[in-house]
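Hi P.,

Sorry for the delay on this. The queue was packed all week, but I finally got your sequence through. Input first:
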Amino acid sequence: MIAAHLPDRKSGRLLAVDADGGIQHLCRADLSTLFRSGDLVVANDAATLPASLHGQHRPTGEPVEIRLAAFVTAGDPTRFLAIAFGAGDYHTLTENRAKPPMLSPGDHLLLGPLVAVVESVLDHPRLLKLRFQGESSEILAGLAQHGRPIQYAHVPAPLPLWDVWTSLAAEPFAFEAPSAGFALDWQTLTTWQRRGIELATLTHAAGISSTGDTDLDARLPFDEPYIIPGNTAAAIRRTRARGGRVIAIGTTVVRALEAAATTHGTVHPGNGVARGRIGPETRLRVTDTILTGMHEPGESHFELLRAFTDDPVLHSVHQTAVERRYRTHEFGDSLLIERRNAA
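Then the structure:
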């Protein structure tokens, strides 16, 4: 597979896998034809924060880049879990980025109009908790003024914020784009509505996809808060009652729905935190089908797909995706997997 390097949402391919492991190669525009009346599509409506902040480590004067990675408390824009780098920017491969200066609790980071205080350095020199000085409104304004979207070396040109917002983006709550949603456009949504396919949303704080460090990457995804509205929980109940399928747009939606589900698969509205990984041992209680990007074996996103189908099918999917040069990463092609034994 090759890395997609342009935010081109109009073109795109779709690799579709049915419950028996059968594979189809389609255009992404064919999404509007694949589901049936009574199904429910659930998408993440989180807008992406400008979570990359360049500045200076005040005690030493050395340059730093701070990438906000998670909320310490859901939705609180004053305290974050963050990844720190030294000099450089996204043009350098993340794994080759310079180490940050030696950080200590109490250190001040000057990040454009914002000042952040290191609360603690955790068990890795790049991983810290920090607290911004000022009121929430001032911090959000400073992020909007100085921050940039987190991006990686496969995308050569700087990304404006709107390139990492999906069509459904609402409240700024994600640290990287819930990129499976890039496959949705208003024409597809309108076609689904005409065909009796329902749409609902939730809000999930999609986290970072890479820290540049193998040990840290093994901990991804970090704990991620979510919000499930009452009308979304009600839509899931209606869908189950009529025998329809629940289709998740992205791994973030799967994490939120499965974290919120009771043992019997009931999803209640409200706030929560998705913890841990979903993988081959996970019994999915809500989600029947997932639409996601193209992922590589070993990534946490790929591990989640093992809850939907078995390893031989995923091996076949990966092999054909490599042979046919499907595009990976956030602006890449799409993968649709129907859960084995799904209704």
